[in-house]
Amino acid sequence: MSMYDAVTSDLDEVVLADEWFVEHLVNEKKMLALVHSGYLNGQQSEVSLGVMQSQVALIVRRSDFGNELPAVGALINLDGKVWQIRGAQYLGYALIKMNLEENEA
After folding, report:
1. Given CB 3.0 to 4.6 Å as the disulfide criterion, which of 28, 51, 77, 82 pairs with 103?
2. CB of 55 within 8 A of CB of 101?
3. In Å, what is the CA distance from 21 to each residue of 48, 51, 65, 67, 101?
4. Using a CB cutoff of 8 Å and minimum separation of 24, what contacts does 40-47 make?
């Protein structure tokens, strides 16, 4: 088993446990994801999540989403709603985090 295989196996067992990641439809593909809407302008928000959800953070496995970071400005469909990618980064070897904003087009 390679180091990458060991790390992704650990992610499945620890990080992607049901209490953290749940199944979402991302670009018409089912995958485990963590969607967090407690961020406004990249900062942790004290605003109730039900009040303002114009921005969300989406974390997915690279093996599910693809190894390349999505381009800033690209559109992504999350659970039937279109969002614009405002930023993307790798989280270690196995995860991608995207900052999404409501698409106004």
Report:
1. 82
2. yes
3. 21, 23, 14, 19, 20
4. 42/87, 42/99
**Least confident span in 1-10, 45-54, 63-72, 73-82:** 45-54
Q: Count the Cβ atoms, other than its own, within 10 Å of residue 89.
A: 10
* 32: its two tokens: 């485990």
Domain 3-102 classification at class level? mainly beta
Q: Where are the domains of the chain?
A: 3-102
Query: In whole angstroms, what is the distance from residue 23 CA to residue 2 CA?
Result: 27
Helix (H, G, I), strand (E, B) or coil at 7: helix
Q: Are 83 and 75 in contact (CB under 8 A)?
A: yes
- CA dist 105 and 100 (Å) reads 14
